[in-house]
């Protein structure tokens, strides 16, 4: 089985990415699993090119530092030519209605003024999946529709031109922590949030982590209890603590909010310390990171080559 997962360099990696996904990718990844930094997907909104390049490199370093096998990693844009070619073939089999129906396109302000890339990015995502021959794509609810489109396009290509693609399925990843913004616990912690006060980044130093946690929003109940509906801020802190130390949030006991915040800060600092150190070490050794990236690109291109060649040939263009 080949499971394909990605992280978009829309900002710096945070503790939510780590606890909710990356840590698990490193721990549970099977020999066929693949992971990539989806830098081309970060171009569908306004972005800064040098920052995108730096974030892509940083996220690759984070994935390696998490302990994911470098042989299973690649950067999406290293396959830009292959993906560009397959995206075009797939776009020519996909209707405007199918693309415009995507709820994410609508949610992100899709309309006549939207970038075309925002409309067609699910087709690029289909190309990501189909080129690597992934049969399973673990995604949250917001992405299942895109995997469904990849499924439709794979089937359509196979039945119209000839069998080339594995038909992928969306799978639900095992439940993991869903970390919320410390300053606004009604929303999830996000890489692209403008105000970083409520976001703990993997590369934040211990003092900054302590400061962000000491300012985390709580409530006026003044009781440390796990009641996500009534006390979302406190519940979020309990969940972060529990995910770091490996217990259930319901079994955690603290007397005061101050005590809770100090314990969460200590746990987060300890959880992130080895990861942060390793990322810094990797970023300081450009040759090693370049080697990992080049190696990953070659493997990913090798996996893609025969499918792309067959698809182009069957589509009558090469
Ligand atoms: N707050 C979170 N708690 C738990 N898991 C999270 N993930 C993201 N945020 C949280 C998981 O991290 C993986 C990679 O994320 P992504 O690049 O696919 O983008 P995302 O889900 O849109 O993450 P962000 O950080 O919120 O970025 P932006 O700001 O660009 O939207 C995914 O497996 C995701 O579930």
Automatic annotation (TrEMBL):
The EC code for this enzyme is 6.1.1.2
Task: Spell out the Pfam families in the cross-references.
Answer: tRNA-synt_1b (PF00579)
Which EC class heads this enzyme's classification? ligase
Q: Which UniProt keywords apply?
A: Aminoacyl-tRNA synthetase, ATP-binding, Ligase, Nucleotide-binding, Protein biosynthesis
SUPFAM superfamilies listed in its UniProt record: Nucleotidylyl transferase
A Gene Ontology biological process noted in the UniProt record is: tryptophanyl-tRNA aminoacylation
For this record, the Gene Ontology CC terms, alphabetical, are: cytosol
Q: Does the keyword Ligase apply?
A: yes
Superkingdom classification of source: Bacteria
Where does the sequence pass through the membrane? none
InterPro entries xref list? aa-tRNA-synth_Ic (IPR002305), Rossmann-like_a/b/a_fold (IPR014729), Trp-tRNA-ligase (IPR002306), Trp-tRNA_synthetase (IPR050203)
An MF annotation (GO) of this entry: tryptophan-tRNA ligase activity
Q: Family per UniProt?
A: Belongs to the class-I aminoacyl-tRNA synthetase family.
In terms of PANTHER family, this protein maps to:
TRYPTOPHAN--TRNA LIGASE, MITOCHONDRIAL
Protein name listed in UniProt: Tryptophan--tRNA ligase
Q: What is the organism lineage in this UniProt record?
A: Bacteria, Bacillati, Actinomycetota, Actinomycetes, Pseudonocardiales
